Amino acid sequence: MLSDPVRTDPVRWNWLAALADTGWAVAYDVVPLQLARDLLAEAQQLHGEKMLTIAGVGRADDYQQDRSIRRDKIRWLNARSTPQAAYLDIMETVRLAVNRALFMGLFSYESHYAVYEPGAFYARHRDAFKGARNRVLSTVFYLNEDWKTGEGDLDDGGALAIFSDDEALVPIIMVPPEMGTLALFLSEDIPHEVLSARRDRYSIAGWFRVNDRLGAPSLQAPVLPGTLPL
């Protein structure tokens, strides 16, 4: 049985306060480096074997492939490989930590590998419509080693840009897709985009959902920095 992750390792989970305060957070020590490398190797193998599919937008009857909006390729995780199972176990720990600290009522999790080839991007969007409750908390875990974040030819692109609202011209933060980085944000509230990549960019995108039957509330007990409840 999993222990309370916030109580047993509070430093590792200090990003929870930022998530409560701003609706987004960036964490660096949630997934072990060796597991990140194993996930990258698997994603690269799937990509090389052409086992990924072109991603679309919308769900069910509204689903469509629109290259003016997004150009990544994906493969859903199913826990059938050792790296996938280990990653999903960690996301279960994340679910418990968020529910323990922020009372979000997260119930289930789905995720997929995402590969952005050179020139691929994802235009500004939100991961869920307001009030739809189909996706509540989004996660993006990055798998790229030696990613350049300079200027011009010294920049590999592909950053995650997080905005305060749909009309903002300047992002709040640009998150480089560097191996070991985990970005989390409220699916309904945070507009974001993926800038055009200049080399193959690997990540795992995921979403926590609530149990629709229970109608669980969203984040309702903000935790101020330094006052995380244990």
Question: Top keywords for this entry?
Answer:
230 residues; alpha+beta; Jelly Rolls; 7-stranded antiparallel sheet; 4-stranded antiparallel sheet; 24% strand; disordered C terminus
pLDDT averaged residue by residue: 87
At CATH's second level, what is the architecture? Sandwich
- How many strand segments? 11
Range of strand content: 15-25%
The CATH topology is what? Jelly Rolls
What is the CATH superfamily classification?
A: q2cbj1_9rhob like domain
Structural domains: how many: 1
Major β-sheet, in short?
Answer: 7 strands, antiparallel
User: Distance between the terminal alpha carbons, to the nearest Å?
Assistant: 19 Å
Q: Any idea of the CATH class? A: Mainly Beta
State the low-pLDDT regions, or none: 216-230
Structural class of the secondary elements?
Answer: alpha+beta
Strand order of the largest sheet: 1-9-6-11-4-3-2
Indicate the radius of gyration in whole angstroms: 17 Å
- What shape does the CA trace take? globular
Q: Percent of residues in helical segments?
A: 10-25%
Q: Encode the helix/strand succession as letters.
A: HHEHEEHEEEEEEEE
Number of helices: 4
Structural account:
With 230 residues, the protein is α+β, with helices and mostly antiparallel strands. The protein has a single domain (22-59, 72-210), classed as Jelly Rolls (Sandwich). 21% of the residues lie in helices and 24% in strands. It has helices spanning 5-8, 15-22, 33-48, 82-102, and strands at residues 24-27, 53-54, 73-76, 106-116, 122-125, 137-142, 160-162, 173-175, 182-186, 192-194, 201-210. The strands form 2 sheets. The chain has a 7-stranded antiparallel β-sheet. Helix 3 crosses helix 4. The longest helix has 21 residues, at 82-102.
